[in-house]
Design a protein that fits this description.
By secondary structure, the protein is mainly alpha-helical. The chain has 3 domains: 111 residues, Endonuclease III, domain 1 (Orthogonal Bundle), CATH 1.10.340.30; 80 residues, Endonuclease Iii, domain 2, CATH 1.10.1670; 35 residues, no CATH class. 47% of the residues lie in helices and 6% in strands. The protein has 12 helices and 6 strands. Helix 1 packs across helix 11 and helix 8 packs across helix 11. The structure holds iron/sulfur cluster. The site of iron/sulfur cluster has 14 residues, from helix 9 and helix 12.
Length: 268
């Protein structure tokens, strides 16, 4: 069955309604990559500010590669998930040392960069290089689950495969980057987790969740994320006008960041 209707409805809507974001004005893989890494786990408004900071401080990937880890962490300060910042610097060094300063223009090449997984490789590849690689992120799962009425859990192996295959069947071969961004934009601005504005949706006429009154049931998630409680006791020690700090080491959260001396205990 042809699914051209999906793109046909979506691309004109995207052209008219997309939010004007600075990384949408460029096809420079460095700037697009920065935006993709920053926007993982970060709201667009906050991400925009950090993106400007990074491109102003490090206008090229070579300048980012030459920065120290502390400098990059400092610029990243406040964004959280600091492994992203460390990966950013490592990947920049890879681009400089292994790819002579130019971003790899293949999906596999992009995936070889530190911190670049399937999603980010597809996003950079399609937007910067026109590769026909579908992106599948939380927004895409939600839009596809609802439009096609799919109740396979999105966090199951079968679900990931099914959604990836569907996204691959849908992607527009002429404008893969625009297509990918359009699906994500629809999920971010119209087909939102709570109270989607279906009246403004270009796919509403074909939407199975809407027709069968299952919008709030889709997508399905099994929700097996493990949550662990840890107890951190911090010591505030001053001597004269100085305060003791230590740098975190080892494979744990906040690696490489500074904190007050800490004793971790089993109980509170
Ligand atoms: S019609 Fe509503 S539920 Fe269906 S895709 Fe559009 S916004 Fe989402």
């Amino acid at each position: 069955m042809s699914r051209a209707w999906f793109t046909k409805a979506l691309l004109p809507w995207y052209a008219e309604h997309k939010r004007p974001l600075p990384w949408r004005e460029t096809r420079d893989p460095y700037r697009i990559w920065l935006s993709e890494v920053i926007l993982q786990q970060t709201r667009v408004e906050q991400g925009r500010e950090y993106w400007h900071r990074f491109v102003e401080t490090y206008p090229t990937v070579a300048e980012l590669a030459a920065a120290t880890e502390d400098q990059v962490l400092r610029l990243w300060q406040g964004l959280g998930y600091y492994s992203r910042a460390r990966n950013l610097r490592t990947a920049a060094k890879q681009v400089v040392e292994e790819h002579m300063g130019g971003f790899p223009d293949s999906y596999e090449g992009l995936k070889g960069l530190k911190g670049v997984g399937e999603y980010t490789a597809a996003a950079i590849g399609s937007i910067a290089f026109g590769l026909v690689e579908p992106v599948v992120d939380g927004n895409v799962y939600r839009v596809l689950a609802r439009v096609f009425g799919i109740d396979t859990p999105i966090d199951s192996t079968a679900g990931r495969k099914q959604f990836r295959e569907l996204a691959a069947a849908l992607i527009d071969h002429e404008q893969p980057g625009e297509h990918n961004q359009a699906v994500m934009e629809l999920g971010a601005t119209v087909c939102t987790p709570l109270k989607p504005t279906c009246g403004e949706c270009p796919l509403a006429r074909k939407c199975i969740a809407r027709a069968t009154d299952r919008i709030d049931k889709l997508p399905v998630k099994t929700g097996k994320t493990k949550v662990r409680t840890r107890h951190f006791n911090y010591l505030h020690i001053e001597r004269g006008d100085k305060t003791f700090l230590r740098k975190r080491t080892g494979k744990d959260i906040w690696h490489g960041l500074y904190e007050l001396p800490l004793i971790e205990t089993e109980k509170g």
